[in-house]
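Exercise 7b. Backbone tokens:
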């Protein structure tokens, strides 16, 4: 199942009445989704497609400051840089502003960051 299919399933569940048992979700149109855990995984996967701003921690002074950005979900270090006199001075090797966290898949919103 790809992301489009997951979106369709969740949208269908939100707009149609359904019956939920311990292992299945049955829609009024006959569609059945197995296991609630699977449905919850689909919801989590869909939510992770919505970009969230990374958590930022900074250390230093106005002259030299280190900024480290972490995933808002799993706290993996995403990006590490140094700011000198208000300008980007150094980016740690291997540090990049990826669109998604490599560990948990959370989409990252890098707008308004260095």
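Sequence design result:
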């Amino acid at each position: 199942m790809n992301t489009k299919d997951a979106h369709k399933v969740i949208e269908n569940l939100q707009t149609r009445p359904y019956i939920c048992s311990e292992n299945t979700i049955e829609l009024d149109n006959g569609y059945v989704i197995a296991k609630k855990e699977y449905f919850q995984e689909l919801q989590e996967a869909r939510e992770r497609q919505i970009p969230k701003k990374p958590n930022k921690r900074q250390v230093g002074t106005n002259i030299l400051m280190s900024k480290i950005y972490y995933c808002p979900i799993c706290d993996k270090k995403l990006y590490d840089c140094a700011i000198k006199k208000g300008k980007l001075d150094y980016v740690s090797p291997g540090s990049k502003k990826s669109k998604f966290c490599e560990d948990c898949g959370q989409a990252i919103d890098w707008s308004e960051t260095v």
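Instructor comment: The mean pLDDT is 79. The longest helix spans residues 3-15.
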